[in-house]
Amino acid sequence: MEPPVKRNRIDDSINSITIKNQTGIDNLIDSIINSKNQPQIILGDEYYQTLPLIKVFIGHVKQPKDISKLFEILNEKLPLKYLLHLKRVRKKDILLSPVSFLNSDTQESIQEYIERNIPEIKDCFEYFREATVPLTPPLTRKQYMENLRHWSLNFHPNHYIETIMSDQPFKQSEARNHRIYMALTFEIVKWYFNIKSYEDILQSDFNAAVVVDPTINSVVTLAVDNRHEHPLQHPAMLAIDNVAKTQGGGAWKIDIDDTLKEDLKEKFKIQYGTRSGTAESPYLCTGYYVYLLREPCIMCSMGLVHARAKKIFFSLDTPLGGLKSKTKLQCIESLNHRFEVFTGFL
């Protein structure tokens, strides 16, 4: 089929670029495939940020033998409610309540509050002090360890999150497959736009997409930028449309050049194919991985949400990107589908 652009077409935005020697982009592609580093997941900010703190009252117990009794009484008459991620007792210190619990208008101290409302424990404390403790529970072991200096916490690690956030989230064979499929996006852009170097890519906004069915380790479709002909024909949108074609749908008659497909198959030892037409046929991109040279825009990101993609991989950030730079659609809980996003190939 006719390609969306001629092979030697160079967009006006890079006409002034001095083309470097041919080995530039080829070396980059080789380094992507052979790198030992693995792509890293992009999660919501709450997984990376410092936990917010809140001021609380701490009571230092006179006699350690009274701690059990104090624990029971305080849990009944002064429950922590939204601070249940905090341990109530730390050695001879007991967490009493947030400082904001007391009515600031009355200027009542924590000692006065206890004497008036829990008189049975008023003589159990040597002194009171204020401290800062985490307002919200830790989501990662790193957050947990960083906040132990403030106060003891209850923490139940999510083993999947800990693994996916590690330096080695994938098996080595999986990581290599991710890198090969990402390398395809660079090779497609190189072929269509006569890209010669990494600098050429950085100074342009060319993009390409590869959709993979990981259950059969097969490329379902390829797509390249065609925005110069149609404003909606971003690679991600074309890729979704191409997937729809494999399922009896699709709206655009655009496909990757057959010569390029064969070149990619030979160079990267990939296979093409889909489960469509079988009992296991997915809905659009359900279960599929999508690889993009550049972070998709918000329109494309929402398209990938509606297409039910499983994982999205990209190499380069874009200022108006929908998965990292401008916003993180994959982290919006109200969406009816969410996928995982990975970057860090370069």
TrEMBL record:
Q: Using the record's annotation, list all stretches that form the CMP/dCMP-type deaminase domain.
A: 176-342
Gene Ontology biological process terms from the UniProt entry: tRNA processing
Mind telling me which InterPro entries this protein's record contains? CMP_dCMP_dom, Cytidine_deaminase-like
- tRNA processing found in the keyword field: yes
Q: Gene3D superfamilies of this UniProt entry?
A: Cytidine Deaminase, domain 2
Q: Which domain of life is it from?
A: Eukaryota
SUPFAM superfamilies found in the cross-reference section: Cytidine deaminase-like
| GO cellular component terms attached to this protein's record | cytoplasm; nucleus
Query: What family name appears in the similarity comment?
Result: Belongs to the cytidine and deoxycytidylate deaminase family. ADAT3 subfamily.
User: What's the name of the protein?
Assistant: CMP/dCMP-type deaminase domain-containing protein
Organism in which the protein naturally occurs: Bombyx mori
